[in-house]
Specification:
The complex is a heterodimer of chains A (431) and B (657).
Chain A: H1 11-21, H2 25-32, E1 54-60, E2 84-86, E3 93-95, H3 99-103, E4 108-114, H4 121-130, H5 143-150, E5 161-165, E6 183-185, H6 203-223, H7 227-242, H8 258-264, H9 268-281, E7 286-291, H10 300-324, E8 331-337, E9 340-345, E10 351-354, E11 358-364, E12 371-373, E13 375-376, E14 383-385, H11 390-400, E15 409-410, E16 416-417
Parallel strand pairs in A: 1-7, 1-8, 4-12, 5-6, 5-7
Antiparallel strand pairs in A: 2-3, 4-11, 8-11, 9-10, 13-14, 15-16
Helix pairs in contact in A: 1-2, 2-7, 8-9, 9-10
Chain B: H1 70-90, H2 101-113, H3 119-127, H4 133-142, H5 145-159, H6 172-183, H7 188-197, H8 209-212, H9 218-230, H10 249-256, E1 262-265, H11 282-293, H12 301-309, E2 312-316, E3 321-322, E4 337-338, H13 356-364, H14 370-385, H15 405-417, H16 422-431, E5 458-459, H17 462-473, H18 485-488, H19 501-513, H20 517-524, E6 528-529, E7 532-533, H21 549-552, H22 570-578, H23 580-583, H24 591-597, H25 602-614, H26 620-632, H27 636-648, H28 651-654, E8 655-656
Antiparallel strand pairs in B: 1-2, 3-4, 5-8, 6-7
Helix pairs in contact in B: 1-15, 1-16, 2-4, 4-16, 5-6, 7-13, 12-19, 14-15, 14-16, 24-25, 25-27, 26-27
The chains are: A alpha/beta (431), B mainly alpha (657).
């Protein structure tokens, strides 16, 4: 078999030529997926007015204490050391460690009545991210995968779904196409690595090697039609598309001024939020920034001192920045965690797991800010009014982004699933 | 930070300008400069770390298989096959064909040694005419240090082995202990019993690391222990009666009552964290002195760590457990005393006069406890065949579907009959035809049960990918081993009850110079290439940073039991396409480079490249492609480099047939 000469490197031309003449069956199918496949779901046009075109999802992994952040209880012992401060919104109080966010309360919808069913981190994180309980026989998609599945791709070079921070235990694309999985960025400072060819390798040589790889691999791939292998093939397409793209500059945080970088905070969460803003500017649909170590079973106030400060700086900078760039009216910002922490302080000066009631935030496109929705009881122990289930919370997020929460999508195993898990969006939260 | 090769000069000697055929290296990669001055011929220097360049035997004495048992193992393996085949026949399914020697070779090396074979190892096996060659290979690999490295990774994922489960705990000796227990093939029930009942500090009795993994969380400790060793999930019952299975919250507490007396901190005189309550303890008083001494009260990190690390010490006291204050069921009152009671069966008679913690351990590890033996059988079966007899392997319930009860029971009985010898159990599975059949493309989410017509086709684990690439890249993929209790003790041990600030500082200084993570990481950098320490995964720090190749390929942060993943991601692909780890083997002095240089001709070179990377000879099609590539390349070295890179980027490389 002769290899065609590839004289000039035009990625798409290469792909088209290669697919038609050389590459395995699954590869050609993947190219077809690039908006043209007959069986791809119909994409929604640019989002309906007032709806979010992007979502920045900030996940506080490990279970953020609700009492010490957005639902302070200064008048009872369960409130611990956290004093309450008045925010910009009359009657809305935050924990004292969040002064900057309290200034932006007018933009925030605070949900104080979230409630979940499990106190196990892995299960609760899965439930929060997918709106479904984790079971062995299926992998459910995360919200990001649903979103890119249902919307146009704004940025042609970069995938539409990203995950910054700790990628462990993330459901990814679940049963949806692997190409919809979030691209994991372990470290915002470092960004996406290995996107450039080594210096000795020019594009022509690189392409030749790729062609060789596919030729050698043909027999194996033909013999093994396999979802896992297919996932790799799909992502090869994404990887090659972004290589050499000038859009990769999005990862270069040094393009921001020192002032901005310091405002967000020179820590993994702060820089993660900054990268999220940059990605959204480039048209990325969904960015999750996962920020861990909230599992404060011991010495909570020592740990919270720094962490709450990082959260306060990063989220307030993010909101201000998005607003300044005209992005807040197109972007939904979510602050979520898997469950809350116990009102009782334990023997190690910490709080333990508490699924009964906890808090989350929504801001930006599709959301009516400046309100508190739902309430916990006076000790922060259980829901007092307007309970919001995880399915309801996810359905609210999906509705704010104009996604379809009513249709039952059939997974490969024949079971039906909905974006948002079949919950009811909370009307009062939506703009 | 983008991965760059900063100088074209560095490429001298790499496969772009390979001196394979005695050509002089160019000073600029790929450029042709007619009339350029002749450069003086100098052997290209390798950029690989010195110690990686030559083969070294690994300093490790490994418990071998019991040679005299071969026939017995064959008999057991045959019986296993009979059970598997009987079930397949019953369902009108057929077992897959037995694999070729090439496929068997690669699969067995990966599953036992954790890596692909070297060229020499592959050729040795493929040229052997012995009828016993497969069993000989299995026995040889099971008895090798490679087996220890491989099984360490298996246990690291299951036991969540990390160096610092909580702030300032130094658990490294425990990690080395797990590896050592594999090395000596410790009897499995005794090993687990040891981990559940050990006392002391981590460098005195490193087995305590298991009980310290969930330090400060005595109820999740029970949940995790039952899940790891009994394949049963009772965690939901910690807070309420289990929604799907039969366990009640009361039962959870009854089980937890056995270990409620286990203490994990000894601060000499009270161990309240946070504020010092009541009488001062040694740790607190030493830290107060330290805070007074250092400017702004900023005690150096290594000093605080040594002090705190010495406070972790496991011992058992007499204590009782009460139901929580918000216990909501009618069968008992909140805060009622709980009597230690096992979930099923009973505490073995021989343990009735032992402490509660020992009773729990005796019950869990008893040969009469079916779930104990069936769980390890399932775990090892899944590791080798791709799924358990009961899947998931750690969520067994009374009504769980078992695809082959007879086969699972057979292996469980074999294990007990052979004194819980894990190596012999693996040997039995490996000898079977079932293990040696062709792999199937099976998807667990399809909803169909799998009856093992062969193993399931799976991607290599992250450690198998890494260790295999090292095998191709360096002659010595194992230049150092992780430090153990003997290494740590003199550099960290302090008796807090008699220590003064000076004596504490003296030890802290030793710790800082040796195993304090920052210093240790610097030490092992001498084994690094482009910042990547070139050593087998089992010896690297744990957990690794999130951007490390091993993490990218799914190794995980080891905060979840069996948390590793094998899903495809874009960063993995970028790493394989452009990253230093793929290019390391194109360096001078790499193992594969050395082999290619010695090849007699182009055909031999291509053959050995295929055997090295894919453990097979090229097919006729492959040869045609290779020949075509040779004819296009400016120099053979370029063709070799391209083919090596191409083969590394096939799915055939990444998946285990």
């Amino acid at each position: 078999m002769t290899t065609p000469e590839i004289s000039c490197f035009q990625r798409r031309q290469f792909m088209a030529t290669a697919a038609s003449s050389l590459l395995g069956v699954s590869f050609a199918n993947i190219l077809m997926q690039d908006g043209f496949a007959a069986d791809a779901p119909a994409k929604l046009p640019v989002a309906a007015p007032g709806k979010a075109q992007h979502i920045i999802y900030l996940f506080m992994s490990g279970a953020m204490s609700h009492i010490d952040t957005f639902d302070p209880k200064p008048d009872v012992p369960e409130g611990g050391e956290t004093k309450a401060i008045q925010t910009r919104v009359p009657g809305m109080m935050f924990g004292e460690k969040l002064p900057k966010l309290s200034m932006l309360a007018g933009a925030l919808a605070v949900v104080r009545s979230l409630t979940t069913e499990t106190g196990d981190h892995t299960q609760a994180q899965y439930l929060m991210r997918t709106a479904y309980k984790q079971i062995n026989s299926i992998r459910h998609p995360g919200m990001g995968a649903w979103m890119v599945n249902q919307t146009d791709r704004i940025n042609r070079d970069l995938p539409g779904n990203f995950l910054i921070g700790n990628v462990d235990r993330h459901p990814g694309a679940g049963f949806l196409h692997a190409s919809l999985s979030p691209v994991p960025i372990a470290n915002a400072d470092v960004g996406l690595e290995n996107t450039e060819l080594p210096k000795y390798l020019d594009e022509k040589l690189f392409n030749r090697r790729l062609v060789l790889a596919n030729q050698f691999d043909r027999r194996f791939q033909t013999k093994h039609p396999n979802l896992e292998i297919d996932a790799y093939n799909q992502l090869y397409v994404e990887a090659k598309r972004l290589m050499g793209s000038d859009k990769l500059e999005v990862f270069d945080l040094t393009q921001e001024t020192e002032e901005i970088r310091e405002a967000y905070g020179k820590n993994s969460f702060g820089q993660g939020c900054l990268l999220a803003r940059r990605l959204v500017e480039q048209g990325i649909r969904y960015v999750e920034v996962s920020y861990g170590s909230w599992d404060m079973h011991q010495d909570l106030y020592a740990a919270l001192e720094e962490k709450a400060g990082f959260l306060d700086n990063a989220l307030s900078s993010l909101l201000r920045d998005l607003k300044a760039k005209g992005l807040l009216e197109k972007t939904l910002v979510v602050l979520a965690t898997e469950f809350g922490r116990s009102p009782e302080i334990n023997a190690n000066a910490g709080r333990d797991h508490h699924p009964g009631v906890f808090s989350g935030l929504l801001a930006g496109a599709g959301i009516r800010g400046g309100q508190v929705y739902g309430a916990s009881d006076d000790r922060g122990f259980s829901v007092d009014s307007d309970a919001v289930s995880i399915e309801d919370f996810n359905s609210t997020i999906a509705t704010a982004a104009g996604l379809d929460i009513k249709t039952e999508f059939i997974a490969p195993n024949g079971r039906p699933f909905k974006v948002g898990g079949g919950g009811d969006p909370v009307r009062e939260l939506l703009a | 930070m983008k991965s760059r090769f900063s100088l074209a000069l560095l490429i001298i000697g790499c496969f772009i300008c390979a001196p394979v055929f005695g050509q002089k290296p160019n000073t600029a990669a790929g450029s042709k400069r007619p009339g350029a001055a002749k450069t003086k011929l100098k052997p290209p220097t390798s950029r690989l770390p010195e110690v990686s360049l030559s083969k070294q035997p690994v300093d490790m004495v490994v418990a071998p298989v019991i040679a005299s048992r071969r026939d017995e193992v064959s008999v057991a393996a045959n019986e296993l096959d009979r059970q598997i085949e009987a079930k397949l026949t019953e369902l009108k399914q057929k077992p897959n064909a037995i694999v070729t020697d090439e496929v068997f070779l690669r699969r067995t090396y990966l599953q036992v040694a954790g890596r692909i074979p070297t060229l020499a190892e592959a050729e040795l096996f493929l040229e052997s005419k012995s009828n016993d060659r497969r069993q000989d290979l299995i026995d040889q690999l099971l008895s090798s240090p490679d087996y220890v490295s491989n099984m360490y990774n298996f246990w690291a994922d299951t036991l969540r082995l990390v160096q610092s489960p909580t702030n300032n705990m130094v658990a490294d000796p425990y990690l080395a202990y797990v590896k050592d227990s594999i090395r000596e093939n410790k009897q499995y029930d005794q090993w687990v019993y040891e981990m559940l009942t050990a006392d002391g500090k981590l460098w005195e009795n490193p087995a305590v690391g298991f009980q310290l993994r969930d330090d400060g969380m005595p109820l999740p400790y029970i949940d995790n222990t039952v899940r790891v060793f009994l394949g049963t999930q009772i965690g939901c019952a910690q807070c309420h009666n289990h929604p799907f299975d039969k366990w009640t919250q009361h039962q959870f507490y009854e089980l937890a009552a056995f270990t409620t007396g286990t203490k994990t901190r000894n601060l000499s005189g009270g161990m309240e964290m946070g504020k010092a309550k009541g009488k001062a303890n040694s740790y607190r008083s030493l830290m107060t002195q330290a805070e007074a001494k250092y400017p702004n009260g900023k005690v150096p990190g290594h000093l605080r760590r040594v002090a705190l690390a010495n406070s972790y010490s496991v011992f058992e006291t007499k204590a009782s457990l009460r139901l929580p204050h918000d216990y909501a069921y009618t069968d008992a009152s909140p805060k009622a005393l709980v009597e230690p009671t096992v979930l099923w069966g009973q505490v073995p008679k021989s343990a009735l006069n032992k402490t509660p913690r020992e009773q729990f351990a005796a019950w869990l590890t008893s040969s009469a406890n079916d779930r104990f033996k069936h769980t390890i059988v399932n775990r090892l079966w899944k590791r080798l065949l791709g799924a358990g007899f009961i899947d998931p392997i750690d969520d067994m319930r009374e009504d769980s579907f078992c695809v082959n009860q007879a086969a699972m029971k057979l292996l469980g009985d074999e294990l007990v009959r052979n004194d819980f010898n894990l190596k012999e159990l693996m040997r039995t599975i490996l000898y079977s035809k079932t293990f040696q059949r062709e792999a199937t493309d099976y998807d667990v989410t399809s909803g169909d049960a799998y009856y093992f017509p062969g193993p399931i086709l799976k991607r290599m684990t992250s450690e198998q990918v890494w260790d295999s690439i090292l095998t191709l890249a360096v002659q010595n993929p194992w230049p150092f081993q992780r430090p153990d209790a003997k290494d740590f003790a003199p550099n960290i041990d302090v008796d807090l009850s008699i220590a003064t600030l000076e004596s504490l500082e003296a030890v802290a200084a030793k710790y800082e110079a040796t195993y304090f993570q920052r210093s240790y990481n610097k030490t092992i950098q001498k084994f690094a290439y482009q910042g990547n320490v070139l050593c087998r995964a089992s010896e690297l720090p744990s957990p690794l940073p999130a951007g490390h190749f091993l993490r990218q390929f799914g190794q995980g942060d080891r905060e979840t039991i069996n948390g590793q993943a094998a899903t495809a991601t874009v960063p993995q692909i970028l790493a394989m396409l452009n990253g230093p780890i793929t290019h390391v083997m194109l360096e001078t002095g790499s193992a594969i480079y050395d082999n290619v240089v010695e090849a007699a001709n182009a055909k031999d070179a291509m053959d050995l490249i295929f055997i090295s990377v894919l453990t097979r000879k090229p097919t006729a099609d492959d040869r045609r492609v290779a020949v075509s590539e040779m004819s296009r390349a400016e120099r053979p070295g370029i063709a070799y480099g391209n083919v090596i890179w191409a083969l590394l980027n096939t799915k055939e490389f990444l998946f285990i047939q």
